[in-house]
Q: What sequence folds into this?
């Protein structure tokens, strides 16, 4: 941290990330998108023995408890092989208030195990509202009763459709807290072609325009690692686009979802690498958490093995 | 409702909306985006006398209580002049679990007063995740402990950057519940120009491409009013674009935010009108809730007067 005139600047996100990636020799981000109907069996057992009982509480509270236990088990299983978790906020949001509490608890569990936390919320709105989301994810909300802390994420996925002024409050809040944002540039789904792949009259695709925005917004957030605090979400399912996007965003950290269940292969991702190992984060969710599906066996053991495999595959891209 | 082979189809969203707009002679949507630091004074008083005390509970719970009281007061003040409330989810989300509970309570208060509820969440994600958001806003989440109901919104704003396959689960869930979605087409902020106004090689802007998607997705959701259940968010701040967007989306309900505080003028919105009064919803937030700011006086009375004024201005567009 740098201290100047009494103000303490946090270590930039990219340097914190670079330090963790180096120390753990991992660029793996484990996605947590818990479905209450398909948690690990052990989570249901623990929820039964330790959770709130049927008599006292709502289905939402019971499900949220089981979801939080499940996420803790996944974190314990994969922590040694990952650098971050990516929490799919929708999966918590659908459980209402108890789901939101479970999200906050899971963030703390991940942090306790030395993992960075990326909130996969894909938020985006006009400036006033973006500032409210910034309070929710990076800062705190002032109230007459005291400040209400947000979930203190290390990273947040954001949707850039509303343009630069909608992103600035989020980038600024992230920067003040040593966190980062990851803007959608080219997503992993087939429908990405409908808008993002459209070619602009002045040249380049909509995705490439988004890449230029990411690059511009990141200029003032470049750490000593050479990486910026404005990253890009780029689907692992469209590897042919990676080289061009890397060219447009040389300092951005690429967060690449879609490995595994969605069909993306780590071996094809080398063009996404920048100059630093932390320039590329691969994200897998169902492929890790559901690794035992089909073959049976212990889900935690299967998840750990799959995480280790992906960790190594990604690390080998640098050879 | 239509019953067929034991299955009850809900009344389509657009017909429900059309009915309400007609009965209330109002196309006004009142935006609720509560800032805990600037609630109506009466909300703080009621929270002090009826809310949880300092000793028992957290700043978040106290702030969420005051926010819910404030929203109830606003709803009471404007209910006779509006057809719906638009709840800015970010403002509740930043208060964590208690905020989420306040959101659900406010939805119920609005419904009790005969108002439709539009959740302004601007969600958008790949299909699996979009289905999770659909559970949160329209349906319910299955869990081993019973179903967890979502907030049962009548409408949800969605971000279409991820394309058609990302919108389908939301449109489908909305349709099954007699609700609707409003996709961002051309937002009210200046930054909208950065991406949405870009011209495509094949002609038209990105916004116009989004409009075509809205039109296509809405085709199967057209009610007897001639309106569809896939609407469009079109900022009231760029009236010169309205005629072209209406041409591209003849059956869509236009939700026009940006009236008042953001500079949009109701008088300029006539080109957004389709063939039915309910084809146009104007949305004002700070302009109504903060109507007494500057001039002083009773906030509820000022809000009611401003709501009545906007209601009449909009209704007169049809002359």
A:
């Amino acid at each position: 941290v740098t201290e100047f005139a009494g103000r303490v600047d946090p270590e930039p996100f990219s340097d914190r990330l670079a330090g963790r990636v180096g120390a753990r020799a991992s660029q793996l981000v484990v996605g947590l998108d818990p479905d209450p109907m398909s948690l690990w069996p052990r989570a249901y057992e623990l929820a039964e023995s330790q959770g709130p009982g049927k008599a006292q509480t709502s289905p939402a509270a019971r499900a949220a408890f089981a979801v939080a236990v499940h996420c803790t088990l996944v974190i314990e299983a994969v922590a040694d092989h990952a650098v971050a978790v990516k929490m799919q906020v929708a999966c918590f949001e659908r459980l209402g208030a108890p789901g939101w509490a479970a999200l906050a608890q899971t963030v703390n569990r991940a942090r306790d195990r030395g993992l960075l936390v990326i909130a996969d919320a894909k938020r985006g709105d006009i400036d006033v509202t973006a500032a409210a989301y910034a309070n929710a994810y990076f800062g705190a909300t002032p109230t007459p009763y005291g400040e209400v802390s947000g979930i203190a994420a290390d990273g947040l996925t954001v949707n850039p459709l509303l343009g630069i002024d909608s992103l600035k409050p989020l980038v600024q809040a992230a920067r003040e807290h040593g966190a980062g944002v990851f803007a959608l540039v080219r997503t992993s789904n087939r429908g990405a072609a409908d808008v993002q792949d459209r070619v602009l009259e002045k040249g380049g695709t909509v995705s490439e325009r988004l890449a230029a925005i990411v690059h511009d917004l990141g200029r003032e957030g470049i750490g000593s690692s050479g990486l910026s605090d404005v990253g890009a979400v780029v689907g692992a399912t469209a590897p042919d686009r990676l080289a061009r996007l890397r060219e447009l965003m040389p300092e951005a950290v690429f967060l690449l979802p879609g490995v595994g269940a969605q069909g993306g292969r780590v071996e094809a991702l080398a063009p996404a690498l920048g100059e630093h190992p932390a320039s590329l984060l691969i994200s897998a969710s169902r492929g890790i958490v559901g690794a035992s599906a089909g073959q049976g066996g212990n889900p935690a053991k299967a998840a750990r093995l799959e995480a280790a495999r992906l960790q190594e595959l990604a690390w080998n891209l640098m050879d």
